[in-house]
Amino acid sequence: WGLLLLAAALGETAAARCPAPCVCDNLRAHVLCLNGSLTAIPDTIPELTRKLDLRGNSFMAIPAGAFLATPYLTHLDLQHCKVERLEEGAFRGLGRLVYLNLASNGIALLYQESLDGLFSLQQLILEGNRIEEIQPGAFGHLGSLTVLDLRANALVYLPDMVFQGLQVLRWLRLSHNALHVLGTEAFAALPALRRLSLDHNELQALPGEALARLDGATRLDLGHNPITYVAEEALAMASLRHLFLDHASLQDVAPDAFARSPQLRILDLRENQLQGLPPLAGAGGLVRVSLDGNPLLCSCLLRPFHKWLARARVQAEGACAAPPALRGRSLTSLKSPEMRCSRLWPPPSPPAPPEQPRAASSRQCPRGCVCSPDFHHGSCENRDLREIPRDFPEDTRLLDLRRNLFRTVPPGAFPGLKELVSLHLQGCSIRVLHPGALRGLGSLLYLYLADNHLSTLAAAAFEGAPRLAYLDLDHNAFTRVPAGTFRLLPNLISLRLQHNAIGELAEGDLAGARGLRWLYLAGNAIRHIAPAALAPTKMLEKLQLEGNHLSEVPTAALRGLPALSELKLSQNPIKHMGDSVFLPVASSLQHLYLDNMGLEWISPHAFTGLGPKIRSLYLESNKMTNIPDMSNFTGLEILNLQDVPFHCDCQLLPLHRWINKLNLCVGATCGSPAEAQGLKVKLSTTFQTCPGWGQGEAGETNPNKTKAASKPRKKKRSGKSPARGVSKTRA
């Protein structure tokens, strides 16, 4: 009786605490507050609630700690709640939550800590918001997530490592966005991904380099993108079985387009502009090709493909559109002799209809340009324009003006485009970006000015575009970083200045760039970096300096960069490397590139401070004959020692033992002595005469044994590594 009374009392307490517009089911621990007038998360929801449905309310923002009173939630539904902002720590305390639905709201940005605390979350639904930008690290706390739904947002560009932290994600849904450019490492941190949906975007070419990182994905949806051509070996996805390229703009496919995707079984090419296909010799495992809805020309030109279908036993779906005698015939019903060529076929194309005059006041699209109202995009690419056109629709979000001859961008060049997110001005012979050129572009996030003739920039040129996050200035004529330019860009995340003629980084050059995460300076002529040059960029994560004229590691300049995880010094003439040169960034550095430098000597203490955090180290194509002890580099996934002339004598015995214990293929070979030249370091027999030989061999305990080496041996993985150089393989 006592227990019954206690249960009744608890039930009455829970009922009493149920918010007025809600319905509380105490037996199932469910609370429904549907389609009400709530403007804040109720603070009287029963503490033991597991499923909370708040659809159809008006919260506008989810404040920090909004659900601290309901720590047992497993399911939370916030669809159609007019949410525009997720404050940092909004879901803190919901460590049991497995399902979160935020669909059909007005969220525009995902901050780094917006989703903090959701370490058990398995499904995150963000469909139908206004997300334009995902800050790096936004998903870093979601280690259990298996499904991420970002459909129907306003994403234009995916930066490198944007999905870092999603180690078990299996399905990433990015359909119905405005994706135009993908960073080459955008998908590099998704080892468990099996399905990627990129359909209904604005991809103009197959993003092969980004997709090559997904060697476990089995299904790829790329339909409804304006892709016109699939090039040779364009797709290198080792496990891909289903590829959807339907409703694109395909006009041609190379014979070996899929040669590096050996598991491909189903190829969907419906509703394109293909008149035929070559024999897809590289796709040896193909079972079915869908060609319905293409204008197939069943002439003698199609015979090689038709014969290949029969020989490879590939099922083909499609019907002839021409010549007239074969129109409507299925591919499977054709006989080779029927597919004939005639000089009278194909007939000449009819003349294009005359352009219809438009009202002078129309803002539908400038003459000679193409505007897509569905995607809010405008394009005047390669139209030989001398002046920047006006009168684009006011809701334009992506504007592509590449490969014209503008030479200057005048003040107020883009009137009325307050919703513009991405602006492409590459290859336009631009020499001057006038003050006020971007005035009124308050939503601009991405500005591409590569391949122009800019040699200087005034800060006032960026006035009116305070949200700019990605600025591409590579392949211009800068001889120094345009100092002071970034004071009006507090939200700048990525700055690309590769392949200019910059000679040094001076103090003050990066003043104002306090939020900068990625700095790309490859291919310049940098000889010196002032100790305080990088001081304003305390959040810097990636620094690429390859292909410059540095003669030493810029150790002093690396101080004050506590978040730096990637440093590229490749192809600099650094011949000697002294003690503790990476110590300022030792606590954060994960990827270090020291290849192709002509490096002759590395101090035994050069790597002081570095250790388990290092995941990849590139030392290939150098001239040193030995390397420092790296036995504490227990987190290594990639180590490249190819084309290094190791002197395989007894001094190298510790390295020989360490390499033999590593679960990596490192490519190290002996350069000397003569009897060992060309042999792999791990196989060389010259060490058998060394004192102590046998003490660390034949399975005996070795003090240099790494964590990687101690793991059980696994079956070798198929497919290509997503990373550059010599990749991790299983012994």
Automatic annotation (TrEMBL):
Biased composition (Pro residues): 345-356
Limits of the LRRNT domain: 17-51, 364-398
Gene3D superfamilies: Ribonuclease Inhibitor (3.80.10.10)
Region span, Disordered: 339-360, 692-731
InterPro entries: Cys-rich_flank_reg_C, Leu-rich_rpt, Leu-rich_rpt_typical-subtyp, LRR_dom_sf, LRR_TM_domain-containing, LRRNT
One cellular component (GO) term of this entry: plasma membrane
Signal sequence, start to end: 1-15
Positions of the LRRCT domain: 294-342, 645-691
Superkingdom classification of source: Eukaryota
Subcellular location: Secreted, Extracellular space, Extracellular matrix
PROSITE patterns per record: LRR
Classification via SUPFAM superfamilies: L domain-like
Keyword terms: Disulfide bond, Extracellular matrix, Glycoprotein, Leucine-rich repeat, Repeat, Secreted, Signal
Compositional bias ranges of the Basic residues kind: 708-719
Family listed: Belongs to the small leucine-rich proteoglycan (SLRP) family. SLRP class IV subfamily.
Functional note: Potential negative modulator of chondrocyte differentiation. Inhibits collagen fibrillogenesis in vitro. May influence chondrocyte's differentiation by acting on its cellular collagenous microenvironment.
Assembly mode: Associates with collagen and binds to collagen fibrils.
Protein name in the entry: Chondroadherin-like protein
Species assigned in the record: Chloropsis hardwickii
